[in-house]
Amino acid sequence: MYTSLTNRREFIKKMAKLSAMAAAASMFPGIIFAEEQEAGIPADAKLDWKKGPCRFCGVGCGILVGTENGKAVAVKGDPKCEVNKGLLCVKGYHQTMCVQARDRLTHALVKKNGRYVKTPIDEALDLVASKMKETIEKHGKDSVAMYTSGQSTIPEGYVASKLMKGAIGTNNLECNARLCMASAVAGFLTTFGTDEPMGCYEDIDHADYFVTWGNNMAEMHPVLFSRMLEQKSTRGAKIIDFATRTSRSSGASDRSILFEPQTDLAVANAICYEIINNNWMNKSFVEKHCNFSKGLTNMGYGTEDKYKFSDKPEKVDFEAYKEFLKDYTPEKVAKYSKVSVKDIKYLAAIYGDPNKKVVSYWCMGVNQHTRGTWMNNLIYNMHLLTGKISQPGNGPFSLTGQPSACGTAREVGTFTHKLPKGVVMNEKHRRLAAKIWKVPYENIPSKPTYHTTEMFRAVDRGDIKFIWTQVTNPLVSLPKTSRYRPGMQKDSCFVVVSDVFPTPTSDVADVILPASWHIEKGGIYGNSERRTQYWDQMVEAPGEATPDAWMTIEIAKRMGFGELFPYTRENHVDEIYNEYRQFHEGVKHGMAPLDVLKKESGVIWPYVDGKSTQWRFNATYDPACDNGEDFHFYGKPDGRAIIWLRPFEPAAESPDDEYPFWLNTGRVVEHWHTGSMTRRIPVLHQAMPAAYVEFHPDDAKKLGVRNGEKIKVSSRRGSCILPASINERGLPTRGQVFVPFFDENMLINDVTLDAFCPISKEPDFKKCAVKVEKA
């Protein structure tokens, strides 16, 4: 899309066509108009095209940004990128249009006497560093915290970890990936002993079936869904939608199966029962490559009453697993899951057929779950029992929601328990970090402190007295924000916010630091398929907007840690990455050198002997396999994956007489997370200007609710008023309402529950009890 004023008339004409395309994409997400990828760009335009990844979701589409006179004026899909092959979704095509928003943060703002005062960036950084030092001196190192993002670049996450854990010596570092991908991490680690998917997007080209578990891919990952639709039309591949709500993915699928919230646990076990009962299990694979284990089942739900964190496995045998599954016959599970016996058997037959390849995809529906780790384990169970794993077109694939939730949060380690390699609890991992960081080994604490929800509880309690948020908007995205907003406003905590635009989070800040946007700085992301993606700075940032990594480095220097941060502003991205690569040397997680990343549109790790490893744990493709077998799950000491005994348990909060509806929350195709970027893009804002509450028509009729009427949605925690939506975009089941969370004027997360999976510590945004009434 072209925005040069010299071609304004042609641009307006072309923009009308592009808007029509956007509307069509909005009506049926996933259909991308490849032949229109340069719509709106005049043929005689002489642009300088620069490669990079998209700013939005974890798919990691490659983009080409056209610049003219120092401005980003056009975007198109990168045809050389293996992720998207030149395609982009509606957000991707319009992504640079928000950069010049009138309310862009271009200078630091310091709150003085209740008002924000424009302040030179150096003066603001001096203040932040002095406040951080003062807080540590008065209250100890665990009184300060940083909260970062799966949208942070790898260099940004790396220097944050180095500052907090290596220099200051506190594990008070968390990221918003805890709200979306922590259950995926815990699931990989408990089943395989190592994190991130074993397959890649090329699986789409080989699979016969795609089973999406609670995942509206048509809106959340539309480019990947387009690739699936292509395989459906050309090879006859089938898409099975398994969800609690009818969405646009449902309409494009070959079969849509709806289940009662939380009962996905039971249905997955029923599928495993059927696989074994019908002798569909790959006996040889299981005997060679799997163990059976059970863990604690009396864990709480992460509320503030007592709950257990330990989940140490107890090894059991196959007969014990068969006995466990007797409670999950299709006939038993159908009674409370609302999934028919026929549909359970149908799903089991897909996984059980040795002649059909199947890929399972999931994202927030599985992960944002009070038993999110368990649900991840259960999906792996189906693939392990049938041996359909780590092969082209066969495998479980956890999709990420943010552009570098893998690369920054999971690989670099911006969780409280993580290091750039391994965990703080492991002495070997701490010693490696201390060596590379050049800090005393004793600097790095051996115990995690606060995960995200507990971190903001600690702010509310007054235990954390200084918090710095970067590249995230927690006062819209946190569950139960009705509690945490007042906590952030207390005088007992000094709040620093780095961002590109004003948000409800910056509204409570003592200091607001202006951040550079995506293309205004160099950076590196890591996407869902372990693909590392590098880009150079493309345009200058306005005013004194500064890269987040460099602001962290400047704070470190002002606090007296300059020797540990010897990077130059001009080249800090490359310098940091070269240092970070030292953590992952070797065949299990080797990362591509900079010269390769700069040349390619992205490189999958492990990168070994000049080649990406596309399928891990399979000796045909993975040079790290060294057990002499076809498969080697080398994350575990014995090289075997674990098939877990994970029971069904009810949700933390279910509907009752007072609060008779389930509340489900999520996203829409037009907007990215809390909308701080996409709501500043006119075409996207016009297409979806406000949030809404979806009803099933029968519930709407019973309540006398009409489209557009103002409805108050209330829980035990808070309330939100939204317009009703009936028979429009999506269709909840009876007794359920759905609300997207992008709209800061309609804060549905005031209503949600902050219970979480006690293993992963990821909150459940998908299930709580509410009542609805006309406002």
Automatic annotation (TrEMBL):
InterPro entries: Asp_de-COase-like_dom_sf (IPR009010), CT_Nitrate-R-NapA-like (IPR041957), MoPterin_dinucl-bd_dom (IPR006657), Mopterin_OxRdtase (IPR006656), Mopterin_OxRdtase_4Fe-4S_dom (IPR006963), Periplasm_NO3_reductase_lsu (IPR010051), Prok_molybdopt-oxidoreductase (IPR050123), TAT_signal (IPR006311). [4Fe-4S] cluster binds at C54, C57, C61, C89. It comes from Spongiivirga citrea. One of its GO terms (cellular component) is extracellular region. GO terms for molecular function: 4 iron, 4 sulfur cluster binding; electron transfer activity; iron ion binding; molybdenum ion binding; molybdopterin cofactor binding; nitrate reductase (cytochrome) activity. This is Nitrate reductase. Residues 1-34 form the signal peptide. Component of the nitrate reductase NapAB complex composed of NapA and NapB. Mo-bis(molybdopterin guanine dinucleotide) binds at residues 91, 151, 176, 180, 262-264, 364, 368, 473, 498-499, 521, 548, 665-674, 749, 766. Its cofactor is [4Fe-4S] cluster; Mo-bis(molybdopterin guanine dinucleotide). Predicted to be exported by the Tat system. The position of the signal peptide cleavage has not been experimentally proven. Substrate binds at F741. Binds 1 [4Fe-4S] cluster. Binds 1 molybdenum-bis(molybdopterin guanine dinucleotide) (Mo-bis-MGD) cofactor per subunit.
